[in-house]
Automatic annotation (TrEMBL):
Domain annotation RagB/SusD: ranges: 196-457
UniProt superkingdom: Bacteria
Family (UniProt): Belongs to the SusD family.
UniProt KW keywords: Cell outer membrane, Membrane, Signal
Keyword 4Fe-4S annotated: no
Name of protein: RagB/SusD family nutrient uptake outer membrane protein
Any Pfam family matching the protein: SusD_RagB
Principal cellular location given in the protein's record: membrane
Keyword Cell cycle applies: no
SUPFAM superfamilies found in the cross-reference section: TPR-like
UniProt-annotated location(s): Cell outer membrane
InterPro entries on file: SusD_RagB_dom, TPR-like_helical_dom_sf
Length: 458
């Protein structure tokens, strides 16, 4: 009765490696889940962005001590160089496969890692800074030779107009969907902006240059003795918009002005919508996403060419103690030209105006990549967190004319009538321990004590 029946059938829910990994399509299908798990519009929810294959209770890895940082870095560089050798170029990826990793993505990530490890070592007493900085320069230089171009419009870069293979500035993105009717994944970022979950601070605004190419504040948020002629003392600002006038155009593309069409109409300074600073964030806001609550589909940029140019400039300077005008022209000054900031950064300009070249390179990074998730790790690697994170977090300057309907009794203002969002007395950063995260206690327990806690976290 069973002579003609085959009982040798494969399970439909479980596959062995030999059964599954047979074609290029198999690899693509498996990788799709990894792309789905890329960091999205998560508002910096750290610690939940990585999932490994689960270890068995008797796996020897559970009892391992911590692997030395140098060994991990070496493996990262080797893996990313291997990926560069085998991945396709960004230009050769078919439009239907847009969003998949390329040689440029691998080397841009190597540059990012090298810059972090190199500057962290330099400012925290490490011994291998030069090795990592050279990796950063090498990775960035490789990407700069791959034909990428900056997208022409900085504002549209973060909206639907900046999506797709026609924009070569985007090196790696997390793809969400076509529109609300064709959602692959979705987010709610524009509604988050409306609700004040991303509220620009005055601390950030102070970092933007004026149109003469000069700053007013240094990287430690201190007023410089020599500053732009356009600077208005904060206590003397005559209106809400005054601090936004005569500035690097990127500021006007990041923050809504008083009276400018914003979320539900013209922006009126307020703290009642959750925007605790009374500044309304424009960068990344778009009406189609806002109109579809919970179904926004604008792609999340994870690596873009502008970051590579900034990495190149910073790593070059940190490696050599100087940077040529030629290298500034193919990095920093390209970013300024894109937005119509017509004052170039050069060595002569820095000397003539008593500017620190390194500080100006860092400033350019702060404003170009504002609100893209780089600020905290930058403060950590530069060893500036103990200063920047223990200051008052400030917002807009109050005046009754612009703040229509606001009740001054509900506002915490300093002597200059500047809104204090968080008082420095409530903010803490202990440099003896907070430059490293604590190791989770369960990881220490699972290792049988082989993994040890970071200094001063006991």
């Amino acid at each position: 009765m069973t002579a003609s029946c085959s009982l040798d059938r494969f399970p439909e829910t479980t596959f062995s490696d030999q059964e599954f990994w047979n074609t290029e399509s198999d690899l693509k299908f498996a990788a799709n889940r990894l792309y789905q798990q890329l960091e999205g519009f998560d508002l910096d929810n750290r610690g939940d962005d990585n999932v490994n294959q689960t270890l068995d209770f008797n796996s020897p890895e559970l009892n391992m001590a911590r692997t030395p940082k140098a060994e991990i870095a070496k493996q990262l560089y080797e893996d990313l160089d291997y990926a560069k050798d085998w991945l396709p170029t960004a230009k050769s990826i078919p439009a239907a496969d847009y969003g998949r990793v390329s040689k440029s993505a691998a080397q841009a990530l190597k540059a990012r890692i090298g810059l972090f490890l190199g500057t962290f070592a330099k400012y925290h007493g490490g011994s291998d800074a030069q090795t990592h900085l050279q990796q950063a320069v090498d990775g960035a230089t490789y990407v700069m030779g791959q034909g990428h171009q900056l997208f022409s419009d900085y504002a549209k870069l973060f909206n639907q107009e900046g999506e797709g293979p026609g924009n070569s500035e985007n090196i790696l993105v997390k793809i969400y969907g076509v529109d609300a009717s064709n959602v692959i994944l979705a987010h709610n970022y524009s509604r988050d902006l409306e609700n004040g979950r991303v509220a620009v601070t005055r601390n950030l605004i102070r970092q933007y240059l004026y149109t003469d190419g000069l700053p007013a504040y240094n990287e430690r948020n201190e007023l410089k003795p020599v500053r732009s002629a356009f600077y208005i003392a904060e206590g003397a600002e005559p209106s809400y918009n005054a601090v936004l006038d005569n500035r690097d155009p990127r500021l006007g593309l990041t923050v809504f002005r008083d009276g400018e069409q914003a979320y539900k109409g013209p922006w009126v300074p307020t703290t009642t919508l959750g925007a605790r600073t009374a500044y309304a964030t424009k960068k990344g806001f778009n009406i189609p996403d806002w109109q579809t609550s919970g179904s926004a589909t604008t792609d999340r940029i994870l690596i873009r060419y502008a970051e590579v140019l900034l990495t190149f400039a910073e790593a070059k300077y940190e490696l050599n103690g100087s940077i040529s005008d030629e290298d500034l022209d193919k990095s920093i000054n390209l970013l300024r030209s894109r937005v119509g900031m017509n004052v170039k950064l050069s060595n002569a300009f820095a000397v003539a105006n008593q500017l620190s070249m390194l500080e100006e390179i860092r400033r350019e990074r702060n404003v170009e990549l504002a609100l893209e998730g780089f600020r905290y790790p930058d403060l950590i690697r530069w060893k500036l967190a103990e200063n920047a994170l223990t200051q008052d977090i400030l917002g807009a300057k109050y005046n009754a004319t612009d703040w229509v309907g606001a009740d001054i009794k509900n506002l915490n203002l300093n002597a200059d009538q500047i809104l204090i969002v968080e008082d420095k007395s409530t903010r803490r950063f202990n440099p003896a321990k907070d430059y490293l995260y604590p190791v989770p206690l369960n990881e220490i327990s699972l290792s049988g004590g082989a993994v040890v806690q970071n200094p001063n976290w006991k």
